Structure prediction request, 1053 residues.
Amino acid sequence: MSRFRTTRVLTALLSAASLAVALTACGGTTKNDSSDDQGGGSQATGTADPEAELQEGVKMAFLPKQLNNPYSDIEVSGGEEALGELKGEYKLVGPNDASASSQVSYINTLIQQQQDVIGIAANDPNAVCPSLNQARSSGIKVVAFDSDAAKDCRDVFINQATTQGIGEKLVEMASKLAGGSGEIAILSATANATNQNAWIDVMKTELAKPENKDLKLVKIAYGNDEDQKSFQEAQGLLQSYPNLKVIVSPTTVGIAAASRYVSSSNYKGKVAITGLGTPNQMREYIKDGTVKEFALWNPADIGYLAAYAGVALVSGQITGKEGEKFEAGKLGEYEIGADGEIVLGPPTVFDANNIDDFDF
Amino acid sequence: MSTVRTRPAGSAASSSGSSGRNPLAAVLRARELGIVVALAILVAYTTIANPRFLSAQSVRDILLGASILAVLAVGQTIVIVTRNIDLSVGSVLGLTAFAVGTVVQDNPGLPLPFALLLGMAIGGVCGMVNAVLVRYGQVPALVVTLGTLYMFRGVTYLWAGGQQITADELPRSFLSFANETLLGVPWLVLIALLVTVAAGVLLRNYRVGRELYAMGSNPEAAMLAGISVGRNLLGAFTVSGALAGLAGVLFAIRFGTIDAAAGTGDELEVVAAAVVGGVAVFGGSGTVWGAALGALLLTVIGNSLAVLDINQFWQNAIVGALILFAIGVDRLVAARTARALKKRNSHVR
Amino acid sequence: MSGSENRLRGSFTRLASWDGAVILVAVVALVVAAAAVDGFGTSNNVTFMVLDLLPIALLALPMTLIIVTGEIDLSVASTLGLTSAVMGSLWNSGMAIETIIPLCVLLGAVLGAVNGVFVTVFRLPSLAVTIGTLALFRGLALVVLGESAVADFPVVFTTWVTGTVADTAIPNVLLPLLLLAAVFTVVLHATPVGRAVFAAGAGEQAARFSGVRVDRLKFWLFVASGAVAGLAGVLWTLRYSSARADNGLGLELAVVAAVLLGGVSIFGGRGTMPGVLAGVLLLATLQNALRLEDVTNEALNIVTGALLIVSVLLPNISRSVRTAAQRRRLRRTPIPQPATPPAP
Prediction:
């Protein structure tokens, strides 16, 4: 009896649902209807006054992807240095996990605390968007750094290097290490990390060119920027692809984990590793020969530039329009490119000869 | 009390699977056999698809991965057979990994056995906190360890403050232990084996082990039988904590990079390993062998997926399905055995 | 003991009972935060806090009923994640959002029914079952959507979820939350179903003998839990305009913590809905206020864990102190005096 009633209720629910489907199948809101009305945010408004004086006491908060990440630590340390020079107030908040939803909570907190500038490395370009726009409508300037937010919801974006430049550099290093031919694999961060995916796209285009026709990209693995996961993914790559010549890891967590795995396994010397890493993390593997060369920009400069851009925005020197220029302390003058992008500069390649000159 | 010791499988529900002539014991041994068979099939299949799966390096990687999980699963089993649960193990692992990492970093000359003992001591203290709250606070273990899951993790984050201990800050001798072997077997694996054997013998052959099963199958009866339930509970949680601490040190040795997030979410994998290994969540039955095998199975599944180039995203789903399958089979077997026992008893009568 | 004193003692214990205390503490926390924490009382922040507590509050409603029956559902956050992933992939396939939303709620109900079948038909312990489905559903979510995110949901819907009623600070989503909370409160405290829930939790055998169809009850509670988790998944997705397989990861622990904090016994048979809602509110207030005061996330973890333990520990201690005092009094005065004041 009870079983019977259960079935009956389930049937009723199912038919209600199919009715709903039938009713709405025609004339609902689908993906195609709404593709063009995205983004409530605004592009740069107002006019810039290049002569405006830089304000003191600007309150700028940095919200990196997550707190316990050595790379983020270095980035924001540059921001702290710059705000010291500019007599601003530096603040660092952030989640312990690289999830978008926890960043959103922090953005709200920063709005309530009436910061002047938020510097954010977005975990998900869209999920943080509504809150960032809320921040901007209450007068807060938003500087994205490292990993961009959707371009409607920030004023400027500090790009570590052009996407094109990094992608080309990664392929160039991989090709050199592989001796021009053979299998290569990529060990990335998360599958929807904005910057990694952009670089990987460039890499794919580069690899499709005739001069790289002997290089074969066999797999893109995702270590989620977690050390342990990356370690295991590196392990999996080497098991699955015995002829692998190079692992390219465009993330500092991935390259360190892959190097550590290879240096402690009998793949050492057979598989080359390259990508983007910090000298301090990679020093050991350069010295023991696991890694020949890798590249990176100085992450502290990103934070530094972000802080100068933030203060310039608050002071009205720039508004985020293409072509505007501002001074960024020791880094010199920068010009805002298309879509509010400010490019830091070309990456540096580290190898056994120069690695001891760097400490970050 | 002697009944408890000599006839542990007094009732169908309370069997521990160690007494040889009992039909239920045979079934439970079949459970371990089942895991071994599943493992064999999986390994064979994967190896055919990719022979490198059985290369020395790959086997070593799997065993190293499984060792850490197995140590945790053994501790968890000891708690679960008493009809409790310890959800804080992942956080304890993180705390000890970071603590021991810091100590070793500051004292590079520290002998390794001392590091292992230090980890166990720190973990043991965490376990004791759980035990005291469960025993004297009369708070259910699920609630206590859920609370300490947050708290131990919070303490680790506060302490680490976003720092990370990286491989190059740890002494070589500490890290190279992960690669050292005795007669070709890595030390980490030997430690896990030693822990499993010791716990297995303790649970099977010693009075205190039998008492733990008795407590799990019927707490009131255990109390009435004169078992010092409180003392045993304290012991079980402390051991679970100490083993989580040991796992923390092994984690530090194996991975070299430690941050405050180490071991986050491990508790579910550990419980899964125990459950897949035939440990009943409501206590009273299951063996550490099963749990250790469960840990091995889960690790092998993870590795096979990578090698077979199956979307890694399937791993979670497979583990979940496996848990449901395992408890389903247990239920079926238990029901059938209970029926068989009833029939036999009525026949005798 | 006179009748009036009995009544007095009754109301006293009711006040001193844990859920009463939680309600009181939650109100005090709100007042203190509003007075002492800069920015807490602003309308923006209130809206935001409600949005933040929404998923936990929603999931806590059916969870309360389930825990009162002596079961548990640890798969809720994974159900939320799977719903979110399916929502994203259906949207990508070009289906209309008006169709997707009811389908997602239905999907949640089906997932809940899966739990229900395992628990009531196969008679498996819900703790083990839902740990299994926790992994299973999350795994399926990853299979459906991988690690990609779907973000282009229609603005009308996303702004409704994050928006407020007219010009007030009342978020739109508060309305369905209040409605559901009212429904669950009435069901638990004022209907035969609610009495059956308590009876099943207090003693399953006894409940069965007194005519409660325990299995059917539990099955439908799991279905309700799944459906609400499905709805929470939809709202979560729209709120962050991001459908991802890892949405709500780990949320189950926060939900269970809130329910237990609200005075529900993990062994079943005891608990009230107002207590649970106060528990949710208390956690959300503390988190929000402490974050505004720049207290780090890690300290929040410690506070959450400690609160959870204390919520069970404190009543236990006060009870044992009370019984000890009573025993001492009984020993001292062989004939109990009617004028003895109630024990503190």
